[in-house]
Every structure is written in structure tokens, then in C-alpha cells.
Amino acid sequence: MKIGELGEFGLISRIASGVANGKGVITGIGDDAAVTALSPGMQLLTSTDMLVEDVHFRRVWHDPCRLGRKSLAVSISDIAAMGGIPRWALLSLAVPPDTPLEFLDAFTRGFLAMAAEHGVALIGGDTCSSRAGLVISVTIMGEQEPGRIVRRSGACPDDDIWVTGTLGDAALGLELLEKGKLPSSVTVEEEHLISRLLDPSPRAAVGRALAEAGLVSAMIDVSDGLLADFGHIAELSALGGTIHLDALPLSPDFRAILRSHPSSHPDLALAGGEEYELAFTAPAANREKIVQLMKKSGIDARPVGIVTASPEVTVVLADGSTYAPQNKGYNHFT
Amino acid sequence: MKIGELGEFGLISRIASGVANGKGVITGIGDDAAVTALSPGMQLLTSTDMLVEDVHFRRVWHDPCRLGRKSLAVSISDIAAMGGIPRWALLSLAVPPDTPLEFLDAFTRGFLAMAAEHGVALIGGDTCSSRAGLVISVTIMGEQEPGRIVRRSGACPDDDIWVTGTLGDAALGLELLEKGKLPSSVTVEEEHLISRLLDPSPRAAVGRALAEAGLVSAMIDVSDGLLADFGHIAELSALGGTIHLDALPLSPDFRAILRSHPSSHPDLALAGGEEYELAFTAPAANREKIVQLMKKSGIDARPVGIVTASPEVTVVLADGSTYAPQNKGYNHFT
């Protein structure tokens, strides 16, 4: 069955039937607007992301369930980067009428599974037909106490620059797909990298924990590449930074694939987008407490550089010499 | 200059430069998420709409400034239908890279003018490239006291059914465009109808005033046609209704054009979408107070029917006989 046969209201019912209630939801799907209540003393955090077929995803790479998961994950990651608690989501879909119903069902299953994993309730959205590809627009709302919200602008000179997880995996995964690999026929190492791209895990719990412990001065999620994203922290904090290339956390799979694909470049770890790790700054005095918090959360994090008073962001090698990256991050339209 | 030459961050800066601050905005555009504070005792109202080129609008009909206005107007209309106060908006755009910068500038000007007219602050969004047409996704947030929010589900038997403004104008305007009329070469009457379609005025002030005065039991905006939209009230209130065809408010322009285009049909007033008027139900005892409130607000409204305990929605003629409409409202994908 195709979406065109089901109709708009059929599609909405089908999505709504799988939706669980959530904290603070007074009226969810089905009225002109959703009604929600913030927890006492909390401020509202809001972010939105659009995913366009053949720009952000390709159906030949992205199975619909992982596409549904990722559509929400990238928005949860924005709430994580503010130290917030994700709460409510809106999902809008422009769907080509010949889309099979199974595709939409699997997409919804993935989206709602990611929502359940992070305590997010789907409270509304919009559906319409598309004459071109599938377009997905997700808005997420979260909450946090005013004093605990972490902005990009709070970094201080001599703060450590930290990164969670590993960098470059998703970017190298994308390179493998662009070279013609298909998710269905890859090695275990390749599959790990491709999964990082197709099914990222937003660092919601750890972002919130860092904020609530008051340990970090500025935070951002790595969606455009560490160099560009730390650049946003530097710009908004009116500071700069030194990033140590050799300190960047690389996965064993990243290292293995890089050895077997010599045309790929280590700059992927520096400038590769879509990692959805967190980059944050924190006073050196908090180093031990951050290590302990990370150990408890089961997520790795390590210092990769230092915030500087001078406004340039530079990358240095182990011998102290400056490294000039070939690629500085992702920019739409260019 | 084309958007492709400006780049993503250039486009964001260009939009952000025109943005005014708003009530409750703590951190607007430029961080991972916007931070806002609800007024004390208020609940949050949230709604989202997607507009797709060649589905919801055509560039040959829709000049970019009015397209910008309408993109926000349809969302403000949803907050109006809940009796809420519109506050904050997020704007996401998927833009073909060859879009002229002037188009985006005029679109933004229109969007921000509509925002200013209704006290709405643009607090965030997303921009990306599109390989097909322009896709616009707007999320709006508003607020209202819990006891004053008006839902679709609150109608009672014997309540009056009311409609603001006039019906059928936008639908007949669309019919004129579809028959080949261009906005640049039409009569004054035709222009009025086409303007209702291309530049609707959301009934935000009057929706809020009705809710705050406690005069209405259920409310919805007329976006799919009165018959379909009152049908949503009836369904969620587990009731029905009788609509008097002769009571529907028609503009002089609608009547004039209908006379000169005999192929057009009076069902446009019953089932035509995109009117963005409000349909609401209210006890007959509130009739005089509603008339007074409407007079004060400068918006016309009139009773067009009665809520019934039996669950059917029927349309009747002046002689009491049942009328069978040819068209029951707009449904995407069909």
C-alpha cells in the first residue's frame, strides 16, 4: 500500500497510534496546538532540524528505521549540548505519494524508539505530500533550570577543551558510502563506522549530567566538525584555542580503515561532521571530577586542547608545529 | 547573487540581522537551542506547519514577501484557535542553491513583518539546500493560562456554531489562479479574493480575547474547510451539528465573482480550505457578549448553526431540507 492511498488523516492516525504519553504533556496530537507544562522553575529549550532526501540522506544507504532514529537523534543532541532534559518533539513530513506504507511504518518505529530511549513524547506535527523527495522537519523542546543551562559563549582562557567518544567515524563512514560501499555488504569495521553515520547516539544523559554538576563552561555538539564547532564556542566566547592533533580520540575501526584506504585523510577527525559527540570547555581544576563523571556514565571523554585569550583557533602537532587542515567543516550550499 | 554563493552561515546571519527581541526570550538565534521563559502560571502551546513548493504555493502566484507572511500566519492561526498568545517561532528552510538572494530577503522581510504584527520573536531555525523546490517549516510557540485554553473537544449540545469573517474567498481565489489568472492582472474583486489566499490574516487577537473572556466552548481555525473543521470539533466533542447554508458569511467580492464565473460553486464557502478564519462553539446565553466583543475587535462573526447531540454533521437549506455538499474538504495525498 502507498501513502497516497492511505491519505493524510490515515497517516496521522497511524503515527499517533504508537505514541506514548510523556512528562508535562497536557494535550498531545490532535488539536490545533499541543499543550505542555514546564516543570517548576525550568526554562524552555527549543531546537529544530530539517533532513532532506539526497542532501542529508539517501534511501539506498539509510534504511527507514535508522532514518527515523537519526531524525530525532540530531535534535536530542542539540538539547544535550545545552545541558537540557529532552521532553517533547514535533515531526513534520513531506512525503512523495508513492512512498510504501512499510517505509513510513519503519520510519515511525525508529523515531518512536529513539523517543522512548530518551523520554521524549511526540506531541504534534504536520504531514503533506511532496512532489520531490522526502523532507523531514523535527522540532524538539527540552527544559533545564536557568543556572544550569550551558551556552556556547561561556568559555574562559586556559579552560581545557574536551571531546566525548571518538571523532571521524561518521565522516569516514560517509566516505565509504560515497565510494560505493553499501551498508548490506561491508566488513565489521566498515559497518561500525557506517553505523556511527546512520544511527548516531546523542549524548543526552552525559550532557545533562555535566551541566547539572556545574563542571563545564561552554558546550556544543559536533555536527559540522570539531574545528568548526569549537570555532563557534571560540567566536561566541570572544576567545581562541589550541587543539592538539595527536590528542583527538580515534576509534580502532577508524585507524584500521584509514590504514586500508590510504586515500582517506586524518583531517576527517578534525573536520568531519555528523559525529554528534559533545565538545565542551571546563576549568582545569574540574579535570578529575569530569573523569569520574564520565566513568560513571560509561562514555569516554578526553581533553584535546586549551582555550586561549588570543582569538585564533590553531591545530598543533606533537612537536609544537602548526598544522594546516585541508578541510574546515561542513557548510550547506557550498 | 544566489544563495549558493552566500553560504549557510551567511544566510543565517542575513535572516538574524532583522530579528527583534521578544517577551521571554533569554537566548535567541545562535546557540544549539533557544532558551525562553514562559510567563508565570502559563502553559506552552506548540504547533508546526510545512509549506512545500508546488504543493502549498507556486512562485508564479506567490510573491516572496507574501509567502513569508503566510508561512508564519498559518501557524499563528493555530495558536489563535487555542485562544493562546503567540510568542516564539522557529523557521527552517530547504532552499534550491540557485534561489536569488532578493527572493530570500523579501521572504524574510514578509516573515518578520508578520512576526512584528503579532508580537512573535524568531528564536531559531535551520537552513539547508534542497535539490527540488523550496520547503518551509515553521514551528510556533505560544502561551496561555491553563483554564483559558480552548480545545476542539469542549462543544456542548445546543451551543451555537460561529464563524469569523467570510468564507470561500481564499478557495475561490485559488480557483481563479488555477484557471490561469495571474495576481498581476486581475480586477479589484479578483485581487481581494486572491489576497485572502496569498496573504491571510490570522485571527490572533480575537481568538485570545474570546478565550480570555471565557465565552467559547470549542474552537478551531478554518484551514481544511468549515465542514471538515467543524467535523473535527464534532468528532472530538462526540457530538454533531446542523449548519445553515444560507447563514454562511460571504463577501461582496465572493458573490460578485460567483455571478461572473458560473462554473464556480457555492460549496467553496462550505468546504474551501485556507480561510484561516475561526470556527467556534458557544452557549446561546453568550450570544450578546460575543457580538459586543466582536464589535470591539473590529472582526465580524455570526452564528451559522447549532451543535446537536446526535453525532452527524448536516447542512440544511432555508426550507429545512438537507443539502448534500459535493466537496467535503482538503485531504493531502488524495
From TrEMBL, chains A, B:
Which pathway does the protein contribute to? Cofactor biosynthesis; thiamine diphosphate biosynthesis; thiamine diphosphate from thiamine phosphate: step 1/1
The residues that hold Mg(2+) 5 are D224
Residues recorded as binding Mg(2+) 4, renumbered to this chain, are: D32, S47, D78
UniProt cross-references to CDD domains, sorted A to Z: ThiL
| UniProt binding sites for substrate | H56, E274, Y330
The answer to whether UniProt assigns keyword Nucleotide-binding to this entry is: yes
Q: Where is the PurM-like N-terminal domain?
A: 30-143
User: Which controlled-vocabulary keywords does the entry list?
Assistant: ATP-binding, Kinase, Magnesium, Metal-binding, Nucleotide-binding, Thiamine biosynthesis, Transferase
Q: Which residues bind Mg(2+) 1?
A: T48, D49, D126
- Its GO biological process terms? thiamine biosynthetic process; thiamine diphosphate biosynthetic process
Catalysed reaction(s) here are:
thiamine phosphate + ATP = thiamine diphosphate + ADP
Tell me which InterPro entries the record gives: PurM-like_C_dom, PurM-like_C_sf, PurM-like_N, PurM-like_N_sf, ThiL-like
Q: Which residues bind ATP?
A: G125, D126, R152, S223
EC number(s) per entry: 2.7.4.16
Residues in PurM-like C-terminal domain copies: 157-316
- Which molecular function term from Gene Ontology is one that the record holds? magnesium ion binding
- Which residues are involved in binding Mg(2+) 3? D32, D78, D221
Where does this protein hold Mg(2+) 2? D49, D78
UniProt similarity note = Belongs to the thiamine-monophosphate kinase family.
Described function: Catalyzes the ATP-dependent phosphorylation of thiamine-monophosphate (TMP) to form thiamine-pyrophosphate (TPP), the active form of vitamin B1.
Extra info from the record? Reaction mechanism of ThiL seems to utilize a direct, inline transfer of the gamma-phosphate of ATP to TMP rather than a phosphorylated enzyme intermediate.
The identity of this protein, by name, is Thiamine-monophosphate kinase
- Organism name: Oryzomonas japonica
